[in-house]
Structure formats: C-alpha cells, structure tokens
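U., I forgot to send this yesterday:
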Amino acid sequence: MKNRFLPLVCSLLVFAGLAAHAQQKPNIVLIYADDLGYGDLSCYGATKVKTPNIDRVATEGLRFTNAHATSATCTPSRYSLLTGQYAWRKTGTGIAPGDAALLIPTNRVTLPGMLQRAGYQTGVVGKWHLGLGPKGGPDWNGDIKPGPLEIGFNYSFLLPATGDRVPCVYVENHRIVGLNPSDPVQVSYKDPIGTEPTGKANPELLKMMYSHGHDQTIINGVSRIGYMSGGKSARWVDEEMADVLTGKVNQFIETNQKKSFFVYFSTHDIHVPRMPHSRFVGKSGMGPRGDAILQLDYCVGEVMKTLDRLGLKDQTMVIISSDNGPVVDDGYQDEAVAKLGGHTPAGPLRGGKYSAFDAGTRVPFIVRWPGKVTVGTSDALLSQVDLLASLAVLTGQKVGAGEATDSFNTLNALLGKDPKGRDYVIEHALNNTLSIIKGNWKYIEPGQGPAVQKNTNTELGNNPQPQLYNLKTDLGETKNVAGQNPHVVAELTSLLKTVKEGK
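Result:
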C-alpha cells in the first residue's frame, strides 16, 4: 500500500523543487539611459547635480567602476546588448537612420528571447534605434514589423529611432499610437516631403535652435534629422515623453506582477533634444542637460516606487547603465556647454560619446537585488555584451553553439562574488577603431580620421600610431606608453586580432 503512493510523492517533490527553483528567478528591470556619462551621477562623484533615486539603488546594491558599453555610439551598443554579439561583426549596425529596417535577424537568439524561454514576460519601452520593418524600411501606416515582437519581446512601446529623428511618433507593438488613417505618415531621409516647415528655412518657429545638423522638419517646435509629413494626431510632445514612457514601464510591471518579467526601459534622457517637463526646467542650474539628468533620476525613482508598492523589491534585479558616454553639444543650442559650471560629465575619463578613449564606453553600471547581490563597490571588469550569457545562467538557460558568440558568463561578478570579472574588454569607436583593455593596460589600434570631432568638440582617439595606456596610473589616458612597452603592444595586438577573427 505504501508503494502505490511513492510515485505521487516523488512527483510532488519534483514539482515542489521546480516551483522553488522558479521562485529563485528574479524579475529583471534593465534601465538603459542614453548618453549618460561616467561623471553624470552623484554616486559616481558628481557634485553639481544630485541623483538621489539612482544613488539609493547604488547604496542598496553594487556600483561598478570598470563596466563598459560595447560601443561609443547608440545603435551598436544596443545591438550588442540584445544579441550578445559585437555589432562591428555585422555590416549596417552603425548609427541607424530613422527609417532603417530591423537590424537584428529574427532567427538570432536575443536577451528577451532567451528570457521568454525561461518563462518570462518580456517588454521594451522607450528608445529603440535598431530599425523596424523589412528590407526597405517599415510601412508606417500599417503593421510595422518585424520588430521587437519578432525577436523576443511580448510587448513594446517605442520611439522608433531617437528623439532628434523623424518619425516623431510612438509605436506600440505593431502600430503607430493614435494615428488617423486619413492623415498618413510619410518619412524621407533623402528629399523634402510634404509642406511641413524646416528649421533651416523657418528658424523663427523654433523653441530650441539647432547648432549643427538637426535643421529639417519641425515637430513640436524642434527641428529634427529627416523629413516627415502627416500623423499630426500621433506626434509626441517632447516635454511629456519621460512621463509617458515611465507610465508604460509601470503599467507593464503592474500587469505582470504575478509572473516573472523582464522589462528593458530604454530612456530617452539625456539624449538631445533635451526637453524636460516643466517640473524640472531650471532646477539643476545647468540648463536642459542638467535638468534632463534630474528627470532621468525621477523616472528611476518612480519605477522603484512601483516595485516597492507591489512588494517586488526583493524579487527583482535592477540594472542601471548607459548606452555610451556623454556628449555636451550634440546638435542643439541648449546652453549645455555654457552652463556646465564645473560639472565633468566624463568624470576623470578622457573623450566621450563617439570616442575610442575610455569616456566613450566606460559607463555607470549598478546592480541591485536585495539579499542576492553584494552591497558596495566593485572594480570587476564588465561588458554589457555579457548580460545575455550571464542572465541565461541565472535563469537556468543554455546558450547554444553559435549563439551570442561574444557573450561570456560573468554572473558571479554581477552578483559581487567575483572581484575580477572579464579577462578583457573590447571597445568600439565611431570610425570602427577598436580598443582592448586587459588588466591595467588599454591598447587602441592605429586608426585614421580626425583627432577631434569638430561639431561636438570630442577627442576621438584616432591616431595612425598604436596607443597604450596604463589605466592604473593614468586613468585619463594622457600618456601614450606604447613605445616603452612593445611586448605589451604585441600581446594586445595579437589578442585583438584573435577576437576580430572570431565569430
């Protein structure tokens, strides 16, 4: 009689074990800021601007000092983050125009797709900038696909590209939000389209003047890159964008609170055009860029409040980072340079967005998961390309052969159990110059191109000669010591060559 119940008991024990394992899988909230520099947060040393909500997450979690985006620009960083593959391995993954086709192949394993396999509900809210639609670009007035839903997300609410590029509409899942079919959207990145005024021809209509580029179709008093007509009922209002996006993130969390969920909150802040809500205007004393930092911090706080209110804080891993380093004047006359007031967006680092120097890719990176992640500061070497492999291990998934080929499991470093992290990190700059960091050494391969990007006044790090820096003694990369250390140059040149030839 006893034995007849044994299979049932065993089954119940197995089920209980699986249920317990499932409960160990955290919700994951990835907050990915735009153009946020290493020195832009008070928890990273900023004194002219305060970010109490992000600081609180850092105080309750682990703040990394040596974490890197894969690229110094947005589209390739995002591609690498979601695919686990360096974007420079695939052609067409530079800064994408607003009408680009989907850049991520629908048959490629992705971070959200992997988490879907683990039973997660997956959502993306905010800036996309990875293309939409088939080859030739999307049908803006019909079903806009393939897109996020075809590469692993259950829900999406997007800016199709960036805030400074048309079309200036939100796309929810496969459709433009609020589009009137009698007023179809038309987009061109080649020739003027429709009769909309442009910044170049009608500067008197602008509420924020452009400084370089950004002089085409005017939407909401701001001229953009590209031409757009139609879709008047669907156009976003820049000043309301942060609230709209944060609301959608919180709605997604509310809807999926009883399930395992992953939400990728890709903020627009602090990218241009910097048009924060009136609640933040003038509050930083640093002009729109500083005010946008305050707005970003507020948005993080609102998401944290939602997790607290729903009792999800202890079951949720929160990751906060940025797609690349900072840029001050990136195309609009918003007084960002004049009102810095001693603030250093890159902190002690050299360069910025677009640059091969470390400020291009060394970014804030904070992880919080109460009771699971060590509290404090870590110098472990991290790359965002590793999130896919690391979170796969965390959620009991396996990454197959040929999938996420550049993504390594650095979960122990993310949790604070490993103080070392990666053996090396690869960085990618605007002109496809690659760099490698290993130990205290950083090597920048010889590259052509200007030393300084004139429009943004950013040091790009281009040099026809090899560059080698000892980051332990020279974090600001001021002294090229390649000539004094030929053996180190040879070692890192060889390692970089091996990585390049990998797949």
